[in-house]
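Subject: Protein record for review, amino acid sequence with backbone structure tokens
Why sent: The fold of this protein is of interest and is recorded here as tokens.
Notation: Tokens come from a learned vocabulary of local backbone shapes, not from coordinates.
Attached in line: The record itself begins immediately under this heading.
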Amino acid sequence: MTTKRFSIRFLSEEVSAEDLRLLLGVSEAAYGGLVLGSHQERFLTPFSFWNKKRYRNQWKEGLRRLVTEARSCLVTAITDPNKSACLTWWPMYRLGDQVHIQNHLLVYSR
């Protein structure tokens, strides 16, 4: 019997000063975690464009969309598109009763 497990959430761990510097001009951020079965991913989420509530709402909307649509996504890092080159997201593709998910960097075309 296989256990199917999925979760996405913000972690309580404080963001290090070194990681915050990587976000160039962002003063507030959080670590997040994504669990897919036995696999765990950590990500860094900036709060300069969206706040925690907006990310959580997008995650809920993205997961709900998979009930009726074959494709959706979870956004884990977005800054002002007018001031940045990309966002980090997890596109999801439903094929029957399986969902395929993979981390991607979406580069904005100008």
Remarks:
- The chain has a mean pLDDT of 91.
- DSSP finds two helices and seven strands in the chain.
